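Fold sample X.
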Amino acid sequence: MIPKVNKSVIYLIFCVLETEVFEKLNKSRKDFIVSVLWHILSIKGKINFLQFGRFSSLGEQTFRNQFEKKFDFFAFNKQLINQVASGERLIAFDPSYIPKAGKAT
């Protein structure tokens, strides 16, 4: 079962994709990006192409083919932050995924 993502989140994603930064993307590519982000937010557990294909109306191969095309996630995140956040911003880095052993930590 996939939990429902808030409609305002989907609306926010569409608003970011409608900015001038992403005007070169066609409608099918924008719909695909929305689908990917929606599934990332709603699938519990591991996220991979097999899971995308399992929980989506699109096939696994479609996700593989679409991910071969370039998409500027940095610009997307920047536009999203500019729309949602106001005032001062802080960037944090969590290196908890780096393996640690002995005195090399």
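Fold sample Y, listed below.
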Amino acid sequence: MSLQTQSLRFTEGATVLHGHLAWDDDLTGPRPGVLICPDASGLGPEAQRRAAMLADLGYVALAIDYYGDGLQPSGEALMQAIAPLRADVSLLRRRALAGLAQLQAQPLVDGARLAAIGYCFGGTMALELARADAALRGVVSFHGGLTPAREDELARMRAAVLLLTGADDPMVPLEAVARFGEEMRRTPVDWQVQVYGGARHAFTRPDVHLRSPGNPALGYHEAADRRSWQAMRSFFDELFEAEHALQD
């Protein structure tokens, strides 16, 4: 593999957003593209690591900044930065759609073969892209928040959905997962939910104990991290079928 990366700058309205693009330069021809919606800490090393992992599988991956100016907040600043996006779902979707347009415009990307993944708040963002009927074949939410959907949006959804969540996540309790399942039953799309026993919120983030020490709601879970990534791989393999064989 010959990993290549590029920093992008793009706008949503008056806000300048950043992106981290990753791809394998040994591959030729248009490839499926995957948009990465990071967790609330923003476009940092963890999002870039996931982009490299996707590039290793043969995808063109774009991790996006949804705050503006590449902000990577923590603590109280994180809560302040994320508040406008939580309060205004249309703003959240516009930021995500701006990133998706950048991914779709890349020369190595097959614009008809796109997917999105997201972590924590980014998982919420990925689901909102599906509800906005974005030009995606599928979305994957890793321990993402579950907000209620509008009935008219459920009927219009086209992207397949894979929800990966922890059984011991107090921020996304199993009651919320059950409500999500009831919503998805009212859509025309293919959808799956996988629940990992013993896993708490942010189960894919190895450094979560350093970022939020002492928070009992959060915890890395190696098995759930590994299994959820494999579930995503299988999901993408089905989405893109013989058009794109995943790398070992």
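Sample Y note: The longest helix spans residues 222-240.
Also: The chain has one domain: 3-242.
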